[in-house]
Amino acid sequence: MSVEPVITLPASGQEVRLRLADFDELCEVLASDEQRLTLAVALHQEGEGEVVFSHARGVVALVGRVQAGAECASFRILGQRRLTQRRDAFRVSLARSALVSIGGGAAIEAVTADLSVRGVRLIVGCQPPLEREVRVELDLGGDKLWVTGIVVRHDHDGFALAFRDLQRSDDERISRFLMQAQRQGLRRS
After folding, report:
1. Given 3-state DSSP classes, what are the helix, strand and coil percentages for the chain, each rounded to the nearest 5?
2. Class of residue 16 by CB neighbours under 10 A (exposed 0-12, middle 13-18, buried 19+)
3. DSSP characters for 30-49?
4. For residue 4, what are the β-bridge partners?
5. What is the pLDDT of residues 25-83, one digit of tens each?
6. Which of 9, 14, 35, 57 is 20 to 30 Å from 155 at the Cα level?
C-alpha cells in the first residue's frame, strides 16, 4: 500500500487507535504537529506503527515510527496511508446555530459543523452515549426544522448524528438548503 503526504491530523484531546506489532489500543492525543504526535500511553516497545482515527472527512491512517516512553509515546509521522470516505451523501461544511434535546430534556445550544440529508455533525459541550436518540433543531437559513437522529460518533468537540425516520418533505427541505448553501459558497470563491 502506498504512502501519501499527510493531509489530515488528529486534534489534541482526540482518541486515536495506535497499532504497533501486537499492541492495538485507543489512546489520547496530547499534542500534534505536522511531524509528530504525543500519545497518552505507556509503551515498552518501539518500531513502525500506525495511528488510525476518525475525521470529518473519513477514517485516516497515518504511518510512522513509535518511540516508547514511561508515561507517553511519541509517533513520528512518515505519511498517510489512506483516507477512506465513509459517507454516501453529499455534505456541506457550515456553521449554523442549532438546539440539541437529549431524552426530552432542556435544549442545549450547539453549532453545526457539517450537514447532509443523512445526518449532522454538531459542535456542542456534551456527548450523549452512542446509539442514543437525540432531537436537533436545525437552522436552514431562517427555516427551523426539528429532526430526530441516533448518535453515531463522538468527536473531540461534539458528536455526529445519523437522521432517523426523516419525512420526505424534511429530506427535501434539507436538500434544497444544502444546494443553496453550496451555490452561495461557490459564488464567494
Report:
1. 10, 55, 35
2. buried
3. EEE-SSEEEEE---S--EEE
4. 80
5. 889 999 988 899 999 998 888 999 999 887 655 678 899 999 998 899 999 999 887 65
6. 35
Burial class of residue 157 in the structure, from the number of CB atoms within 10 Å of its CB (0-12 exposed, 13-18 middle, 19+ buried): middle
CA distance 64 to 78: 5
pLDDT at position 186, please? 46
Q: Rounded to 5 degrees, what angle do the CA atoms 16, 14, 56 make?
A: 90
- Residue 83's beta-bridge partner residues? 60
Are the C-beta atoms of 155 and 122 separated by less than 8 Å?
no
| In the chain, domain spans | 15-84, 92-188
In 4-129, DSSP assigns E strands to 15-20, 23-32, 36-40, 47-55, 58-67, 73-84, 92-93, 97-102, 108-115, 119-123
Distance CA 136, CA 102 (A): 9
Give me 110's grid cell: 450547539
Distance CA 124, CA 110 (A): 5
90-99 pLDDT per residue, tens: 677 788 999 9
- Specify the fold of 92-188: Thrombin, subunit H (2.40.10)
